[in-house]
Amino acid sequence: MANQPTTTFSEDARVSLQARIEAILYLKGKPTSAKELAELSGETESSVEEALLTLMACYAQRDTALEILETNRSYSLQLRPGLGGLVQNLLPVDLSTATLRTLATIALKKRILQSDLVELRGSGAYDHIKELREQNFIERKRQSEGRSYWITLSEKFHRTFSVIPELNAAESQKAA
Predict the structure, then answer these.
(1) Nearest 5 degrees, angle CA 114-CA 117-CA 120?
(2) What backbone torsions phi and psi does residue 97 show, to the nearest 5 degrees?
(3) Residue 22, SS3?
(4) N or C: which end of the chain has fewer CB within 10 A?
(5) Nearest CA to 21 among 1, 50, 61, 62?
(6) CA 106 to CA 80: how far, in whole Å?
(7) What pTM did the predictor assign?
(8) What is the pLDDT of residues 141-155, one digit of tens each?
């Protein structure tokens, strides 16, 4: 790869390439090419391919519920076969795995522009956002400048997943 990759991954540089690739695959929730992984991680395609081989070997050696699968030169992080039923029984709501991953991305960011979320999760995120809004897990407000929307978690999300919003926790401490 002669050109320098475009860096969009702005986390701490001390995080290993394998960890960054794992995070990207988790958040994407769909098969992603080595080229796109290189662009998102700010690394060369050859270093990403080498890191992928190492990461795949690590997953293969561990007794874990996850695996990295290569299909048509694209990679995805997914549950090992046979665990889908277990996960569906444990979910507190009726959301697809892809929609739950989108919700997890929103929860990790606390507040994210819809355009950034779609960039991270792909165009399927529009359907996930619609479903999450219909089930009142997220709120969406138009950006004051720009055309995108700010997406945040709703009170229902916090009640359903037993997470206390930081603001309410801070207010409770002040009152005590």
Answers:
(1) 155
(2) -60, -40
(3) helix
(4) C
(5) 50
(6) 25
(7) 0.49
(8) 998 888 899 999 988
Cβ atoms within 10 Å of 140's Cβ, excluding its own = 15
**32, 24 contact by CB (below 8 A):** yes
Residue pair 157/138 in contact by the 8 Å Cβ criterion: yes
Cα–Cα distance measured from residue 84 to residue 150, given in angstroms and rounded to the nearest whole number: 32
The separation between CA 21 and the C-alpha centre of its own chain, rounded to angstroms, equals 12
Q: By the 8 A CB rule, do 101 and 29 touch?
A: yes
Higher pLDDT, 24 or 9: 24
Q: Place 156 in a pLDDT band, splitting at 50, 70 and 90.
A: confident
Structure token digits, residue 22: 């794992």
Count Cβ atoms within 10 A of the Cβ of residue 148 and give its class: 0-12 exposed, 13-18 middle, 19 or more buried. middle
Burial 17-35 (b: 16+ CB within 10 A, else e): bbebbbbbbebbbebbebe
Query: How long, in residues, is the chain?
Result: 176
Which tokens belong to 145? 């400048």
Torsion of CA 83, 154, 166, 147, to 10 degrees: 110
Q: Report the DSSP pairing between strands 66-71 and 149-153.
A: unpaired
- The rounded distance, in Å, linking the Cα atoms of 159 and 70 is 37
Residue 168 is predicted with a pLDDT of 43
Q: What is the pLDDT of residue 162?
A: 56
